[in-house]
Amino acid sequence: MTAAWLGGASYLIGLLGYTGSLRRLGVSPYLRWITAMLLQILLLYGAAMLGQLRLGIYGVTGLGVILWGTWQILGLFHRGSLPFEGIHLFDFWMLGLGGAMVEVLARSPLVHYDNFSHWAVMVKFLVFSGHLPAATDHLISFTSYPPATALFITQFVTWVGFSEGAMLVAQFLLIWAAAYAVFAVLRDRTRALTTMILCFTIAGSLVFNVAIRLNNLLVDYVLPILTVAALAGIFAYRTRPWLLCGHVAVFSAALLLVKNSATFFVVVIAGAFLVTLLKTNRTRWALPGNLLRFAGTMGVASLPFLLWQWHVHATFTVSKHEISAQAYRHQLTSESPATILKIARKFGEQILNPQSLSTQGILLLNLLLVGAWVVIRLGKRRRNPLLKTAGWLDGMFGLYYLSLLGMYVLSMPYAEAILLDGFERYMGSVVILGLYLGAMVFVRVLDATFYEQNFEKRNSRSFATIMSKNAYQLSTLVAGFFAITLMYSEITGTNFTNRMNQQTLPLQLQRCSRPWTHLNHRKVLVVDPHATDVNDYYAGYAARYYYFTDRAVGQENFMVSPAAFRQIVQQYDYVVIPEFHRTFTVLTQKVYHQRVITGLYRVTPQRLLRQR
């Protein structure tokens, strides 16, 4: 425990060194945390590509500690000090409820299937092997998936200690730092109403993340929240072109290294970046320079991803879900027009389904934006961009629908595509992005409607009438109430999920034995009485992660003769029985003359030896 606290303090001091340096370079105080994290990810990525991940972790964190120490020493001589930004209402909300979520996640197990098929096993591999997967490392199945979040989590757990809770806390810190960036768009951060609306947005966005929640390492929430932070930075740096270019390069490069599907979100960032550049200086001579800045920035941002693509092609002969025109062309030619039409029809039915959470979110967002536009346009007699914002967001949703349909047709096997596997999870990402964008535009518009536009003169009397003051106070209370309630609901929901998951396979494995942390090739048989866990490879993937071996499989059916049963068991080095399996127990009594119920057993020619 002491080592974990010391390691955590070292990591925090290193992070503070980066944030302090970025602030002195002009980075917004609300973007400094996420910018520092993404910058460290890119540095770690460079070290990992050079085969020096462990050295990179110590070097990157050590550099941060040196920077922190340097600024502390300079501060003693009153040099390099930073202005105090003040503490606002949203800071208390972020710290209080964020801390409560950290406490819950630190005690949460991993249960979701995809944690064991890739995300968690990738982190465990990086932590205990110290390098990126090679062609001989068959433990990692999805070798084309970029490693950005895994590298960040690996850095964190290297210092605080490896555990499932620590991995979840690391990813949440990344998410929370990105969410904090939305406050950079506020015109006046002392106004309780606008800040509580953004807090409400953060909490409300988790409703559309319900398919995976925060107690999983999947990146479906990471993608949109990093995009939101990138767009908030584009707005904050719109009059500072060089800082703007550096910001876009860092965020776009990091996003492309999160997941292959991040391309759509980077396109959104690139579009906002280009529009901002063209709006900054509209003279005829500025156009070539701005286009050159745009091309150079996006070119630099794409280099780490292109390097990753080269690494995948050079290292692995075959890689699941890699970006390959040849693979897409092969799948497209292998599917008949009738098959593609059937998938498209199913896709259209799901979009128009009123029970679809993503469809409900899109309709609700449009209703809120159009409704607010009408109220402000008619009530305040003011022109505002909310209707235009709704149109832009609908266009974004439409493009995402097309890209998602293309993924089902080009990348997924027909059996999964026809079921629209993961539809709500994938659509939840773009709905979350739209929700944040709508909220950021709305709070800007709302602030512009306030009676007093001089920030220095705003106080408790800065209202046109007593009725408007009462409406402001009531709206603030309502927004604050729902911001706290929805976040508290997420916390209690995660707690409830943890309690309900006590009898799931991953936790049963934890009760059977200690986890293995040495990469091995031992053959492990998981005796699982649930056929679904075996048929969808859940049992095998969970055991591969827990026992850190690439040769773990699950089996449910043991309706065989005693001789055949002995032959099956003797093929393995270990047998794990997470839950009582009647057939396996009866045959063990007949063949080995011993009674086994649950636990981990080493296979010998004469018997099964219980392992502690």
Automatic annotation (TrEMBL):
Domain of life: Bacteria
Keywords (A to Z) from UniProt: Membrane, Transmembrane, Transmembrane helix
TM regions (residue ranges): 30-50, 56-77, 89-110, 116-135, 193-212, 218-237, 264-280, 292-310, 361-379, 391-410, 430-450, 471-489
Protein name: Mutg family lantibiotic protection abc superfamily atp binding cassette transporter permease
